Amino acid sequence: MKNSLKEEGKFSYVEEGEGTPIIILHGLMGGLSNFTGVMNYFPKRGYKVIILDLPLYSMPLMKTSVGNFSKYLKEFIDYKGLQQCILLGNSLGGHIALLSTKLYPEVVKALVITGSSGLYESAMGESYPKRGDYNYIKKKAENVFYNPAVATKEIVDDVFDTVNDRNKLIRTLAIAKSAIRHNMAKDLPKMRTPTCIIWGRNDKVTPPEVAQDFHRLLPDSDLFWIEKCGHAAMMEHPDAFNEILYKWLEDRKF
Question: Which CATH architecture best describes the domain 6-251?
Fold first, then answer.
């Protein structure tokens, strides 16, 4: 990603553009570069795009949880003095966005989730029993996408390094357990924040029925499908993802 990472106090983030803020929350194995397409598209259309680098592996272990990541996000929003944000999250990032919307609805104007955890336990709960086996990790990474070629060597290397780093692995498992504990099924019907659900039709991590459940449970939600697409729609089909989201934001007058 060409944008430089800003380091301010305990916060690290990338920021581009002016206008309504879109705060992007990455997944457990997802880097900031996963959202390059969004970062290149929306600042040209009147939005301030901020990708927050979540402290997944640096927060004290006892505090490593979905709830504390949501508090961290709220502290960042307050630090930046932002008003009425749009939260966009993939996988774990979607879960953090959902919980933050529940806890701090006054600062969330709209919610966008793609391949989000929060309902489907297996999305976050799987371990890596063969973590020393590079080919196994490569297959697991490729399985995230409809087109396995999207799982570049750089992506596979990052996942392999993460699961073979004891500190990161311990925190990965702690986050997975926290995500399971923070199941959102009972909370969603009470959340009336406008929500855009963009889902890969071929998502194997959070299958299509998960998107349908989110749509059914969230009172003010719209569901959009991207065909021939896996768990990370904004990476695999960035143009389609951006077009769907931009039209939704325009139709909703955000």
Answer: 3-Layer(aba) Sandwich (3.40)
